[in-house]
């Protein structure tokens, strides 16, 4: 089985969640950035699990990435990693497939209904990947309104991501899920 966990991540939290999901899923899964997940790498995927940080209640955009760049909003004022494409452009360029899909995001406001994950799942579905699970949010610490001090995953979130990966593996293995 070919399982790809794809992420956009400015300060590493979404990347850490992606790696934990892949670990939890098992040997079939590989975590990679949107830059690494090119069309030839993705081709034939049985399951794509994609994630991005929530920026202004949505997937990051050119505008929010610019705010992050100018504002140095990361932990300790760290500059963001903008070297890989935005999840939204990666989804636009994603070739049609026939596998399954799951999506997640990272956010400082765990209670918010709006986020990136549901939009990512919609993008995957648009490319032909049928949803396997409901979208999932993972929490980073930070100021609830001004995300200037964000960037660190909340306690227990890596373990929660690992467990979710294991759950997705079980669902994929179950004949009814396929
Ligand atoms: C410009 C900007 C806007 C953000 N907007 C939101 C938001 O609307 N809701 C939220 O919960 N977190 C928001 N955040 C916090 C991000 O979700 C947080 O930076 C992200 O989860 C960190 O993940 P990363 O380390 O993978 O980049 C925002 C962050 C930035 C930089």
Q: How do the helices and strands line up, and which of them pair or pack?
A:
Blueprint (H helix, E strand, L loop, with lengths): L2 E5 L5 H13 L3 E5 L5 H4 L4 E7 L8 H10 L15 H7 L6 E8 L9 H10 L3 E2 L4 E4 L17 H17 L5
Parallel strand pairs: 1-2, 1-3, 3-4, 4-5, 4-6
Helix pairs in contact: 1-6
Flavin mononucleotide (FMN) binds next to helix 1, helix 3 and strand 4.
Structure characterization notes:
- By secondary structure, this protein is an alpha/beta fold.
- It has one domain (3-177): 3-Layer(aba) Sandwich (Rossmann fold), CATH 3.40.50.
- It has helices at 13-25, 39-42, 62-71, 87-93, 117-126, 157-173, and strands spanning 3-7, 29-33, 47-53, 100-107, 130-131, 136-139.
- Strands 1, 2, 3, 4, 5 and 6 form a 6-stranded parallel sheet that branches.
- Strand 1, helix 1 and strand 2 form a beta-alpha-beta unit.
- Helix 1 (13-25) packs across helix 6 (157-173).
- The longest helix is centred in the last third of the chain and has 17 residues, at 157-173.
- The radius of gyration is 15 Å and the shape is globular.
- The relative contact order is 0.21.
- The model has no long low-confidence stretch (mean pLDDT 90).
- Flavin mononucleotide (FMN) binds next to helix 1, helix 3 and strand 4.
- Strand content is 15-25%
- The helix content is 25-40%
What's the story with the biggest beta sheet? 6 strands, parallel
Note the total helix count.
6
Order of helices and strands: EHEHEHHEHEEH
Instruction: List cofactors, ions and other ligands.
Output: flavin mononucleotide
Looking at CATH, which topology would you report? Rossmann fold
Average predicted local confidence, pLDDT: 90
* Secondary-structure arrangement, i.e. CATH architecture: 3-Layer(aba) Sandwich
How many distinct folded domains?
1
- Report Rg: 15 Å
CATH class: Alpha Beta
Low-confidence parts: none
The dominant shape is globular
Distance between the termini: 12 Å
Strand-pairing-aware structural class:
alpha/beta
């Amino acid at each position: 089985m070919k399982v790809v966990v794809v992420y956009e991540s400015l300060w590493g939290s979404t990347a850490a969640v992606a790696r934990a999901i892949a670990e939890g899923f098992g040997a079939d899964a590989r975590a990679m950035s949107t830059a690494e997940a090119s069309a030839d790498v993705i081709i034939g995927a049985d399951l794509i699990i994609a994630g991005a940080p929530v920026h202004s209640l949505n997937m990051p955009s050119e505008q929010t990435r610019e705010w992050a760049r100018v504002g140095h909003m990361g932990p300790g004022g760290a500059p963001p990693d903008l070297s890989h494409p935005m999840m939204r452009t990666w989804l636009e360029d994603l070739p049609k497939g026939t596998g399954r899909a799951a999506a997640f995001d990272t956010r400082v406001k765990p209670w918010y209904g709006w986020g990136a994950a549901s939009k990512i799942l919609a993008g995957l579905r648009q490319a032909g990947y049928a949803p396997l699970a409901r979208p999932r949010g993972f929490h980073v610490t930070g100021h609830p309104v001004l995300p200037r001090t964000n960037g660190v995953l909340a306690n227990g979130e890596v373990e929660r991501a690992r467990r979710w990966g294991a759950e997705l593996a079980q669902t994929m293995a179950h004949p009814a899920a396929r």
